[in-house]
Amino acid sequence: MPAHRVRSIERVAEGVHFVEGPASNWIVLSGDGTASLIDAGYPNDIDLVRSSVREAAGDAPLAAIAVTHGHSDHTGGINPLLAEYPGAIVLTGDDELANVRRDVTYQVTAGAVLPHLVKPRFARWLRHAIQAGGLQDVAVANPTGLADGASFELSGHRVRARTTPGHTPGHTAYELVDERAVASGDALVTGHAVSRATGPQALHPMFHHDRAAALAAAGELAREWADRTLLPGHGPLLRR
Ligand SMILES: [Zn+2]
């Protein structure tokens, strides 16, 4: 089982820090006197998220959290952070709003996991997911939607939203334009607790809302982003 600590914080570029958390990752951006996050860990990662923001961005107040998708290992820290920074906004893809609000839930089901639990790595993953608060209510009340291709700034960094459906209906990746890096979320990862593979890959099919679309998207994105630094939702940073 992963220990409850950050595996690494790596500086990707000026004002861009990639945090490989215990089981899922987040990114701290800073640069215009504010800090922003892309994703926010499991609910019980909140202290790790807070301390990584301080380490990467000092006392800069949190201005925004951009969310790749509404799964509890990516949205878990949002509500406690909003309580602390009531002015912060939450952004996600237009088609992911309902999942982030939890009007609907597109998340791996017990029925999909059950047949795999005879395998130790799946059992370990599930135990960690539960201990990390993966079953807690993570509904976010008022996220703001982004269209595919929308350009905006996060703490002084130019960002472009890219809808990458399959893992969830509105999964959204965030391209850091000037850094030639992409926060690929769960559309393209570089590792996962249930996977033996290393390097760019799709998550295990059981995690996807639309398996065929997710696998096709991962292949396409791996080619399209072959020269981009990958900041994935799971697995280590891949510099290019
Ligand atoms: Zn996910």
Automatic annotation (TrEMBL):
Species lineage: Bacteria, Bacillati, Actinomycetota, Actinomycetes, Micrococcales
Residues annotated as domain Metallo-beta-lactamase: 23-234
Organism from which the protein derives: Frondihabitans sucicola
Domain of life: Bacteria
Identification of the protein by name: MBL fold metallo-hydrolase
Pfam family membership, one: Lactamase_B
Residue ranges crossing the lipid bilayer per the database entry: none
